[in-house]
Structure formats: structure tokens, C-alpha cells
Amino acid sequence: MRRTFLIARREYMAYARTVGFWLSLLALPLFGVLGAFIPVLMERAEPTREVVIVDLTAAPQDGLVAPGVAIVQEIARADRQAEIDALARAARGAAGLQAADQVRAVAERDGLEAGRAELTRAAPVAAQGFTPPRPSLVVRGTPPELARAQDVAAAEAAARPLLSGENPRFDGVVLLTGEAAEPQARVWAAKADDRTIQNRVREALREQRRTNALIAAGVQPETLRRLESERPEVQMFSPNARSGGEVSMADRMPGLVGFLLGLILWSAVVTGASILLNSVMEEKANRVLEILLSSASPAEVLTGKVLGVAAITLTVLVVWGGFAAAGLGFAGQALPSVAQGFQAALGGLLEGGAVFWLIAYFIGGYLMYAVIFAAIGAFCETPRDAQSLVGPIMMILIVPIFTMQMAVRNPDLMAVKALSWVPFFTPFLMTARINSQPPLIELVGTLAVMVAMVVLMIWLAGKAFRAGALSTAKADWKTLLRLGRA
Amino acid sequence: MGAALILEHVGKRYGAFQAVKDLSFEVQKGEICGFLGPNGAGKTSTIRMILGLTNLDEGRISILGARDGRRVRDRLGFLPEERGLYKKMTPVDAIAYFGALKGLSMAEGRKRARGLLERQGLSESANKPLKALSKGMAQKVQLAAAVVHEPEFVILDEPFSGLDPVNQQGLEALIRDLARGGATVLFSTHVMQHAERLCDRVVLLAKGQKAFEGTVREARASVPRTLEMEGPALDAAALAALPGVIEVEASPEPEPGVRAFRISLAPGAATAEVLKAAFGRGFEISRFDVREASLHDAFIRLTGIEAETGQEAAR
């Protein structure tokens, strides 16, 4: 016991004292935050494109929409829609799903001003920090040299200089030709790989044809505009929702939390196991393992190392948990509804006793993989030796990453249920499923199978560890299994 | 005194390969015993069985009264053949850690570590990471780690390999200190010179079997001493007739007109008696030289194997 503790403590200190350990500890939360902000930053950094429209089509028939006008209208519609989406998003984060629906409804019915007012009412803090998205496209007045052009060739000749050079005057020139009813567009862009203008023009012209077809069929333009802003109200209910009826943010969170916990377990297992592998490998390479085994039993050495690395992994989890709590506290102000949903989901884990199952799966999952990696390490002196042995196990470890996503979206899927019984996947899949209240028989059954596997693995790995520590045999699966059996 | 270590008919097989066969020997308390043999003779296998690191297939071992090294772990000190330590640890921490595994408190381990390092002239390096130390220094640290808990029985597997002659001498002094402090020392080596200087007794091992067990003097006595003689009119037949002579061999003439012979003496024959008889019979002897057998000679004679000479140690 004393020796086990000494070995565990040395193992812990050897890592906890290195700067690299703390750096890598901070790296994940840092990249997590960066990862969350990068899409937002990229959206913010999206430039506003300035385009000019040259309409060479004949004037349209009475009542019908000209293509140039259609493009301007489409741009306005898209900008408005983008702002409504942004308003709803801000409301959802801060005040929940219902508030978001409400803000969207008001904005669509009564306009953006009313939508902003509704956001201010529902979520004052979020409204204060709200900035409308920048328009992706604006139409500028046609410069005289383009306006003078009578045909496509002349217009294109005039357009070229406007789009060339270090700082082109415009980002795009849209030439509309052919019939007004069925126009063709030639989009000239300053950047050859920028397809935004092309896509928006195509969308606008499709809309124009639809509108014109409906008007030609006798539909009043007034009716069309009304239909445009129509938004049927659809609410979602479930007897299993937290409120007992209407589905809210709190109902979506548990699945996400389960997936996150599964991922955390997975990364803890992979990190812990590879630390253990490297540590045993170092001791094998410099023969410290032989001295250790002359000072303590193989079981004491193996247990000590596994516990020491468990303590390291626990430190990692605690630090990450600290970051998560801080993030949740911060989010509690900016996005109260997300934070509340999250807290409710975590609270649910405690209430339902699920946390005890989680702890059992965490410990079992960690032990199962840790002892395997330690046994492998006892046969290897270099990472190259270890590669062929670790490869198959890493392949096994990839499977839960994919199935965990399935388990969250559809926890009752037969494949997910079946894979949960495979001890190597049990800890990850059951963790991901924990919030969908799996039947007790599955909880107990999978845990029992896993525990049996853990016991078997500890026994086998213990033998392989002892054999490997003193052997100079080549490191491959055949040797490992043969020595494990001996 | 009593035996600290007894091996009785010990055998070890790896598959079809018999690494150790019917090996029996004893090491008395407080003595320095050399465990000699060429590479691959089964020394490391035997040491691992004594420590309880591997099981024996046949026979019985008794170490400090226990039948397995594992039962008396804390009273044993062990230095494995190929060595290394945790590269990032300091010598003081490493020595204290291994001491703690053997039952010392960390504080006591640190205190003793500083004392041991000072005696080895390593005070300045006591708190540097081990990777900053030279190989010889690291080896001294490792030896200190093996004996910090003042074990009753110390097993050193090839302790001299990789050390320069100065450090080899330091190590010899250290082993003598251990024995003077009452510890029993068993060390393996394939370099005979160290054993010759250090050991009370030696066990010779060849191809997994014991070839000899006894004192260094006894080992040497198993090889006939030789007497070299030169003279202008010496005669092989006359020399062979001298008492105690078992064989006479002619050597190349050192200079024209001078004949040289190499005379092997029977075990126990007194050199002085042989010489007295030669002069008494009126032989004209211009030069004579008595050559004592070395442990190396004894080893070759006892095992029939050409052992590596001391030259390797100086490399």
C-alpha cells in the first residue's frame, strides 16, 4: 500500500512538475474558446461587396418586375432576413426558445424596428450588445462610362477597368441581357473565385420569374407581398418535456451534455493511457522497471502507476471543469437561457442518481484502457515499438466517437443499444446515453459485463506487465498474448 | 557466520533453452562473492531468480532465510545490469525515492542521499537533473540508490561495465566499505581482475553450469604454476626428472646458444624445492622466473572458455 502510494506520487509529480503538462492543460480550453469564436469572427469579417447593375434588357410588360429591380429587392429581403435571424439568435441565447420565436414573429410582422424593441423587452442585456449583421451586397449607382454602353461588348469593355487593379472600384458588375421576362445575367467579379454575387443574382432572377409568372396568372402583387411575410405559428410539445408540456431549451441540453461527458471521458482515457504508455516505456528502456520490481510486486507497480496517472487525469478534468464553470458563469450573464439549460441538465444528472452510473463508467473505462496501455508499455522501449501494438486499440477507440453522436441524436437506435454491450465501447456510449434514461436492465447489464472485462484485463495485463518488464522479446501482439498466457 | 544465500540444484529454462542448470552454491554472511562467467553464462538469470523477479523451474533458493527474494525485499539492494534512472529527477530525489520504496522515510532518504553523494564527490550535482550528469556519475547515483537503505545483502549485476579505471577503483572501494559495514555482496562480472582484487570467494559459471566455487587462491591453485628457466646447456629430460615437475616445454631461444624451457609444476609443489634440486644437480641457470597463475588462467582451465580479459574493463 505504502509502495503503491509512493509509486503513484512519483508518477504524479513527474508530470505535474513539467511546464508542458500545464501548457497542454490550458491549451484545450483555449482552443475551445477560439473554436467557438472563429465562426463568429469570420462572419463578422465577411466583406460587404459593392456591385453595379447594367440592365440591357428591354423594358418589361406592364405590371411585371424588371430583373434589375428584382435584384435590388432580393438583396433588401436577404438583409432583412439576416437581421431577423440575428435578432432571434440573440433572444434564444438569452431568453429561450419562446422568446426567440416571439421576436422573430414580431420582426416579420411589424418590421425590424418592432423586432428590436421586442428583443429589448425580452432580453435587455442581449439587446444592448446587439449589432445587426453587415449586408453582404450593396448596389451602387452606375458610373457614366457603363451607363453609356449600348451592347454587351461595350459594357464589358467598360466594366473591365472598374474591376482591375490593386483596389478595384467595384467588387462586381452584373450585365443583364435578353428578354426582360427571361433575362440572362453575365456576372463580372473582381475576384475570380468569389461566387457570392453569382449566387445572389441567380436567386434574385429565380424569384423574379416566379413573381412574374404568378402576376401573369392573375395574382395581385399585394397578395404576393402578404404571403411573403406569412409565418404560421408552430409550437412543440411533449409529455416528457421538463415543463410537462411545451418543449424548451432545457429539453435539448441533456443530450448535448451526455455527448460532452462522453467526449470528456474519451479524451481522459486517451490522454491517461498515452501518459501511462510513455511512462512505462521510459522505465522499461532505462531498466528502472527492473529496480522497481525488485522493490515492489508487479501488482503494486502497476496499481501505483495507474493510480498516479489517474490522479493526473483527474487534475486535468478538475482544471477543465473549473474553466467550464467559469465559462458557464460568464455565459450565465450573456446567454442565461443556454446556461440555465446546461445547469438544469447537470442538476438532472445529480438528481436521478445518474452521476453514480457515470462515475462507475468513468472508472471502469479508464482502468480497462489504462492497464492495456501499461502492459503494452512494458514490452516497448521506443514509440516505434509501441506503434504496432497501439494501432489496433486506437482503431477500437475511434468507433465510440462516431457512435456517440448517433447515441445522442437517437439513443434508442438498435445499433447503439447493441454496441453499448461491447465492454470496450460501454463507458463512452452509456455516458452519452445517460440522459435519455436507458432502462435499468441495460445500465446494470452493461456495467456488469464491463466490470468483468475490467477484472479480466487487469489480470491479463498484470501478467503481461510482469513478463514484459523483464523480457527483451520483440514487441508484437503474438509475444504479448503468449507471455500474457504464461 | 552462516550462509546468507544458498542455491540448491537451481535450474531455469526459456522454452527449449536451458539458461541455468543444476546450480548450487553458498554465500556466507559478510563476504564479497564474485559471480563470474562470460556473457550469456546465465548470471543475470540466476540473479533474477534470487531476487524473485522470475520463477525457478527446478531447485531451491534461500536468501536471508527466505525462500524468495520478494519476501525480504527491504533487506536487499539491487543494481541491474543495464542502467538508467528517471532523467528529470535529481540524484537526491531519485535516491530518496528508491530508499522510500525500501521502507525509509523520504526525509531520512534525502539525508542519507546527501551523505552518499558527498562521499562519492557528487555534492555539486545533488540537485541537478540526472540527464545533466555524466554516465559515470549517474552510475554512482544508481549504486547509491541501491544501498541507501543499508541492505544486508547487495546484488550488483556487472557493476563495473561502462566505468573508466578511476571510477572502477572508486566502486571497488565502495564495495569494500559495504562489506566492512557488515553487508554481504554478490556481484557478477566477466572481468576477472575485479574479482581477483575484491573477492573472498568466487563462483565460476559457464553455459549455465557451475565450473568452480571457492576462494581466489583455490581457483588459482587449480592451475599449475609455471617456472621459466634459461641456460646454455639445459636439457628437457633432465628438467623433467626434477621433483614436482609434471611437464617441460621448450620455448624459442631468447638468443643464440641459450635454451629456454617452460616447466609446469604439480599442484602443491614448492617452487623453492624445485629450484634447490636444480642447483643441487649442477644445472647452469642464467635466468629463472616464477609465474603465478591468474584467475583468468584458472577460468580458462576450469571452463575451457576463453574469458574476456581485463582489457575490456579499461575501454
Layout of helices and strands, plus pairs?
The complex is a heterodimer of chains A (486) and B (315).
Chain A: H1 2-16, H2 19-45, E1 49-55, H3 67-95, H4 97-110, H5 112-122, H6 124-128, E2 137-140, H7 144-147, H8 152-163, E3 172-178, E4 183-189, H9 196-216, H10 221-228, H11 249-285, H12 288-295, H13 298-334, H14 336-351, H15 354-377, H16 383-409, H17 414-420, H18 426-433, H19 440-470, H20 477-485
Parallel strand pairs in A: 1-2, 1-3
Antiparallel strand pairs in A: 3-4
Chain B: E1 3-14, E2 17-28, E3 32-36, H1 43-51, E4 58-63, E5 76-79, H2 91-101, H3 106-119, H4 135-147, E6 153-157, H5 165-180, E7 184-189, H6 192-198, E8 201-206, E9 209-215, H7 216-221, E10 226-231, H8 236-240, E11 245-251, E12 259-265, H9 271-280, E13 287-291, H10 295-303, H11 311-314
Parallel strand pairs in B: 3-7, 3-8, 5-6, 6-7
Antiparallel strand pairs in B: 1-2, 1-4, 8-9, 10-12, 10-13, 11-12
Helix pairs in contact in B: 2-3, 2-4
Search tags:
heterodimer; A: 486 residues; mainly alpha; 2 domains; four-stranded mixed beta sheet; elongated; B: 315 residues; alpha/beta; Rossmann fold; six-stranded mixed beta sheet; 33% helix; ABC_transporter_ATP-binding (chain B); AAA+_ATPase (chain B); DrrA1/2-like_C (chain B); ATP-binding cassette domain-containing protein (chain B)
Task: Give a quick rundown of the structure.
Chain A is mainly alpha-helical. Chain A has 20 helices and four strands.
Provide an overview of this structure.
- The complex is a heterodimer of chains A (486) and B (315).
- Chain A has 486 residues and is mostly helical.
- Chain A folds into 2 domains: 50-228, no CATH class; 251-485, no CATH class.
- Chain A contains 20 helices and 4 strands.
- Chain A has helices spanning 2-16, 19-45, 67-95, 97-110, 112-122, 124-128, 144-147, 152-163, 196-216, 221-228, 249-285, 288-295, 298-334, 336-351, 354-377, 383-409, 414-420, 426-433, 440-470, 477-485, and strands at residues 49-55, 137-140, 172-178, 183-189.
- A 4-stranded mixed sheet of chain A has the order 2-1-3-4, with helices on both faces.
- In chain A, α11 (249-285) packs across α14 and α16 packs parallel to α18.
- The model of chain A has no long low-confidence stretch (mean pLDDT 82).
- By secondary structure, chain B is of the alpha/beta class.
- Chain B has 2 domains: 3-220, P-loop containing nucleotide triphosphate hydrolases (Rossmann fold, 3-Layer(aba) Sandwich), CATH 3.40.50.300; 224-292, Alpha-Beta Plaits.
- Chain B contains 11 helices and 13 strands.
- At the A-B interface, α1 and α12 of A face β5 and α2 of B.
